[in-house]
Amino acid sequence: MDCGCRPGRLPGVAVSVTIPASFVDLVAGRPPEPAISGDDWLAGLPALIERSLDRFELAVDEGPVRHGVAAIVVPVRRGDTPAVLKLSWPHTEASLEHLALRTWDGRGAVRLLAADPATYALVLERLDGARDLTSVDLLEACEQLGRLFTRLDRPAIPQLQRLSSEAQRWIALCHKGSDAVPRRLTDQAAVQMTELITDPDVDAHLIHQDLHYENALAADREPWLAIDPKPLAGEWAFGVAPAVWNRWEEAQSAYNLRAHLRLRLGIICETAGLAEERALAWTFCRLVLNALWSAEDDDAAAITQWIAAAKAMTG
Length: 315
Hints:
By secondary structure, the protein is of the alpha+beta class. It is built from eleven helices and twelve strands.
């Protein structure tokens, strides 16, 4: 995308802020979800950075500007305090991040220092952005994730989407199915979700539904802290799945895929005190859903990966 500037340089900002061209590539072309397209948001990003720095009284600090799939993270100082300014492309999954972080209040998660929900701007404590749980042996990393599950466990807050409601949409998607995904898998996922959501506690907890190895950063005050929450009113058994499908290259090299993936799941469940059968069922369902969404994108390689992992969760 042509930002009207040299690659990686944001125009119109009073201080030097450099972003990776890879971030622009990730956001450019995205349709509104629901309010503003990726292209329109990128066009306004220089002014948004400047307004956010002024509003929160921040000074850009030394260090790399990092990014995820939909957010840029700028190192800043708030007075004498090192922090980061996180600006997310406005989309539904990021809309309630600030509420989850306020609820956790730094216990098991990055601490929220200030927020402007209307512009998806957050000021967060600065963690070690160069060290996440991908730097740790896989089985130890699974244990650390299980510990974070227990640190983050809180009653659900009323503003969140409920897992039971989301599952109703997913059940309909499974019934619709896809020629690219075996019908026996989609039928099984629909049946299992229908049963899982009858549990009276299925919506009882504030959970981070995307807590995996790259979303846990090293810190001084705790060994690891969760970042980038995708909050949901649900159960933590639902949250195990991302640790199963991330670090996929290690799964591919395993002698027995089923044993490898189930070992990950088992370690997290044992550490966090979760019912392994519910985590197994939810993980299977989420993998089938990923296969269906990849089928919508006509991504054959991803479909193959999701189906292989889903089959490893059965039998």
